[in-house]
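hey m, so remember when u said the tokens were messed up on ur end? i reran from scratch. heres the input so u can diff it against urs
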Amino acid sequence: MKIIGTGSSEKGPLLDRSHVPLLLFDYDEPDRSTYVKLLYSVPAGELQVRRFAELGEHFYWTTPQGWMLLVHPSTRDTFLWNPLTRARVALPPERDNLEELQPDARCVLSHAPAHPGCVVLIADLEETVLWHCHPGAGGRWLRHEYDDHAVSPDVSISYSMSMLTTVGGKFYSVDHLQKRFLVVALEFSPVDGAATQCTAGSTIDA
């Protein structure tokens, strides 16, 4: 594996697009004072160490889709940011101190930000609470508190939220139940975006 030294995102494109897909990892710095991230290029087999100046004044979460959710602590400006292209997608201003969830939260997008049905979801990993919105500055963040045992008295949905992922606009997680794995699906209303239900999917022996 080839390791590339620290670079800056302040000028020019961050990376060659031929290096996509990329895996983004937090660097082990508790105070995040240098805003350094590790990027691993799957096709190139390279690990790159990059300093992102854009992260200097924001709280942030990474997503499996390659975007990052940034919140400015003073202005409350909130947006999705692509570390590869530096593109921004506006989100409703944050008014509910979402930064208090760090680092105990999981952030996932249901679709690409340009998709009309895209839902931006933040799952609190300490409480049974979901925060979600649609891209666009004119909307608002919605708070949804769910029943931790909605699927089964023996299944804790919150326990599996750290593994939350998405396919085809639906959110999924997996839980362990008496030597079996249980897939849990979370669906949102197409009208107002409210979380409607958590349903149990297929099971498989552990």
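this time it looks ok to me. The longest strand covers residues 195-205. if urs says something different then somethings off w ur setup not the seq
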